[in-house]
Design a protein that fits this description.
Quinone Oxidoreductase, Chain A, domain 1, 26% strand, alpha/beta, Rossmann fold, 33% helix, 10 helices, 6-stranded parallel β-sheet
Length: 324
Amino acid sequence: MYAAWYEKNGSAVEVLKLGELADPEPGPGEVRVRLHASAVNPSDVKARAGGRKVMWERIVPNSDGAGVIDCVGPGVEASRIGQRAWIYNAQWERPYGSSAQYVALPAALAVPLANELSFEQGACLGIPAMTAHRCLFADGPVAGKTVLVTGGAGVVAHYAIQLAKWAGARVVTTVSSPAKAAHAQAAGADVIINYRTEDVVERIRATVGGVDHVVDVDFGKNLPVTAQILRSNGVVACYASMGDPKPAFPYYDLIRLNPVIRPVLVYTMSDAAKAQAHADIARWIKEAKPIFAIAERFPLAEVVQAHLAVEGGKKIGHIILTIG
């Protein structure tokens, strides 16, 4: 199979290679997917750069993608052969991810892809949609609640806004530019705050009073604001904290609220949580006609340029590898 890989950590230009590798064979409980699209997530480029040390002879990067199941391993029903699927977590604790023509992975991580979605759209779901779902629904319904989604132009936030609206919530989001505000508005956000030009606490208090639930892209950096606008018995679900990886916790500011603080990592979610997300995402796709934002597409041969586009931090939407 044609694939991209690296054998050591480093810059995309220095370490990413392209060529032929042996086709993978599915083991017990696994399926093999003939991939047509792969999404490059920030976690993929961070892992390649050194966020996760190379533990195998080579690593085929990327965890998300979409294609057609063409082979199954022992213990998997043959009826799955020919099924369109979106995949995620492909390269978590495994050497071979989705930057290739084929990937073998546990059958539960290859989720049926609705016929109305393209493979490129399917590749967008993966970790971003799963993260958004877990952040929103791990602690109960959000219907009738006010949800704050920070960083409203990010790929996780894009789905969090849409899923929250589908579930009956009012959505507030923060952005850093007019272009990102337009993106968040297209996703359905009710209140959009430019945190570079507005006081977030004042604007939230003036428009909605406070929030019941936060989906947070930068827990530590945003914690001083969160403590001022979260309502009693609220939830803070966070999936990153790059601005302050080891934040001081304002215990006595938060204890009065009886909050739930929930860090979310899709890789280690329970099987039950994953299955619930699969089912809910399928219903959302059927009922809500979700919006997918693809910033740029690159052929697999241009995997270096795709990684650089993610690292540049200027894109709004997904970076997709198209796989012939």
